[in-house]
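Hey, quick one: can you model this chain's 3D structure?
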Amino acid sequence: MPVSRENREVVANALAAFLRGEMSEDAFRNRLNSIWVGLDQNAVQDDYLSHLCGLLLTKTLVDLSALSEPAWRQLVRDLAFLKSDLEPTRPASPPADDPDFSAQVRMARWHVLGLAVSFGLGLVVGWWLPAVCCVVSFVSYATWEWRQDKARDKERFKQWAKELAFAPFECEEDWLAHKRLLEPSHLPEYDPAIHWRPRTFSLAKKFWGAGASYLIMAGLALILAFMYAFSVLIWPLSLVLMSLCPASADRGSEAPGQ
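Sure thing. Here's the predicted structure for all 258 residues.
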């Protein structure tokens, strides 16, 4: 797909001026916005340019008012990419299915067995035993699943960090080969006095902002409390339904963790 060379040059020049400290954040945002709103009507559609402008304007990529050194390096690479005619290669999306579903089914079957025993003993000991076991089962299963997700996400993030270490370039060699395109921009070294300028707010705005944050957190905590309470109530039924699902590579009565 062809690139919008003219618009890329405009954004690249504005980005270079901003990185040199010659253009304010507001002026840079206005320049980006004027380019972004007209990209859809442009005869040449540049997906990378549209994506970059959108990320910068919405502060999804970096916070322009408080640039850290890694964010600075990211924008420097974006500047070199804007001056090229390259298009970024998109990393492959991770699989949508859960690779540990069979392990979850086996774990659910063990929990069903444990709850069935607790309900049987509850007829003798009292109703409190299955109630306590239901809560313990829910917490232990959720903790086990969280640990599994955390370990899997750690590997995914490690892979993504490796793939995006020199983004939008595909690899370090590609980045170094195009780094010479930055020479005409005469970029300075990263300077916190220039690039780290977080916005300051009045005491009243800080007060109302903190109050609103606490109210939102309290509301979320209340919603989560109701959600977890309801989840515990239907937990035995959820476990039974989960245990009835066919598990691939089922290992029968093998205990979890073996």
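One thing worth noting: Residues 109 and 243 are 5 Å apart (CA to CA).
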